[in-house]
């Protein structure tokens, strides 16, 4: 299977490495020269910060208190 990894940051380079190691072939594409220079998100995605929770199909977690 051929894949394309978009973004040559830390996460993109790591993803491309492990995909190649698993036998996939493809390309790593970035708009600038040089790889792994920055790590803006470093793989951290926090959807509720960017999109309303109502856009997702899972229910909101119930509030719980720790048991002692």
3D architecture notes:
The model has no long low-confidence stretch (mean pLDDT 74). The protein is built from 2 helices and 2 strands; from the N terminus they run βαβα. Helices cover 24% and strands 15% of the residues. Strand 1 (2-6), helix 1 (10-21) and strand 2 form a beta-alpha-beta unit. Strands 1-2 form a two-stranded parallel sheet. With 68 residues, the protein is α+β, with helices and mostly antiparallel strands. It has a domain at 1-32.
Descriptive tags:
68 residues; alpha+beta; 2 strands; 15% strand
DSSP E strands, number: 2
* SSE pattern: EHEH
The poorly predicted ranges are: none
How does the overall form come out from the CA principal axes?
elongated
What value does the average pLDDT take?
Answer: 74
The rounded Rg comes to 18 Å
Alpha carbon gap, first and last residue: 51 Å
Strand content: 5-15%
Order the strands across the largest sheet as they lie in space. Answer: 1-2
- Portion of residues within helices: 10-25%
